[in-house]
Specification:
This protein is an alpha+beta fold. It contains 11 helices and 9 strands. A hairpin with a 2-residue loop joins strand 7 and strand 8.
Length: about 325
């Protein structure tokens, strides 16, 4: 039983996430695994470890909301709520999209700090790049998926261009530091001119280029959400990326990731496309067309990046 004086607003999927408001107006976010999520391998082990690391890694601490409770035994995480007291919760949109240049700058700066400060830290491997192994173990990848999502994953594995892309990205993947693993607009908040990231459950030892590619993919996806589209520019990258990537990369200031950014961004886009398909519950008919799920612009963008791989890679050398 919880204290009746507390106001608790809850959402749940793989985890139960609640916004808790005390009588004095103070607010916190409480997160713990949903019933049965452990069977699917979902837990808070990595996320809780990141918060422990933050106690002696300032670069991580500066990118996190303030922790209130870390309970590894019961898999419970409680952190300060970063939104406004009167704000809608949960939010149904990213309030600070990466298409805003100040957000891109702060994300690049924060990411560079925690990447650079964790190259010698003992970490569990990140779970975020699982799609790179799709073609070698399609059955496992589709085992717990909805019918439409499983068919989409098999489509990717059977497509020569997409499967070769994922295989190449897997071979290029170089685990080196702590990565967040799930860079998307829903997972950060801008507070007092600082960017705070949440949802570190997919984090761990990984390739820093995977996080960078996540940021580039988010630029593409936000443009699609905003109705701008992903029209390619001269470089082969969508015009939104051509505008925002230099801003982000100049803030990140690392130089050894160019060879991996095209395949990693494409792979991240395919991963998100599979989530979009999964979110459309009615997409279960074996004869249905993927266009009804909204993933066509994503697949088109990935195809163009593969076709113009060399010039898209060369374009980054002037910014990194």
């Amino acid at each position: 039983m919880h204290d009746p004086r507390l106001k608790i607003e809850t959402l749940s999927r793989f985890h139960v996430v609640s916004r808790v408001t005390a009588p004095d107006g103070r607010m916190a976010i409480v997160k713990y695994p949903a019933k049965g999520s452990a069977r699917g391998g979902r837990n808070l082990v990595r996320e809780l470890y990141v918060y422990r690391l933050a106690r002696w890694k300032p670069a991580i601490a500066s990118a996190l909301p303030r922790p209130i409770l870390l309970d590894e035994a019961h898999q419970i995480l409680a952190v300060e709520y970063l939104g406004h007291a009167g704000s809608e919760w949960p939010l149904h949109f990213a309030p600070y999209p990466i298409t805003r240049p100040p957000v891109a700058v702060r994300l690049g700066m924060a990411m560079a700090k925690w990447h650079g400060d964790t190259t010698e830290v003992s970490l569990l491997p990140s779970l975020s790049a699982g799609i790179l192994h799709l073609s070698e173990d399609t059955e496992t990848a589709t085992a717990d998926r909805a019918a439409g999502s499983a068919r989409f994953m098999r489509f990717l594995a059977d497509d020569t261009v997409f499967s070769q892309l994922l295989d190449e990205a897997q071979h290029l993947y170089r685990p080196r530091c702590l990565i967040h693993g799930d860079i998307r607009g829903d997972n950060w908040v801008l507070q007092d001119d600082e960017l705070k990231l949440v949802d570190w459950e997919m984090s761990g030892l990984g390739d820093p280029a995977w996080d960078i590619a996540g940021a580039l993919a988010e630029m593409v996806l936000q443009a699609i959400r905003d109705g701008i589209g992903a029209e390619p520019g001269m470089s082969g990258w969508p015009r939104t990326v051509e505008t925002l990537a230099p801003i982000f990369l100049n803030a990140y200031r690392q130089t050894d990731t160019c060879d991996r950014l095209v395949p990693f961004t494409a792979a991240r886009l395919l991963h998100v496309a599979s989530e979009w398909v999964d979110a459309v519950a009615q997409f279960v008919n074996e004869d249905s067309d993927f266009t009804e799920t909204g993933v066509t612009p994503i697949l088109t963008t990935v195809g163009i990046l593969c076709e113009k791989r060399n010039q898209a890679t060369d374009w980054f050398t002037q910014w990194t």
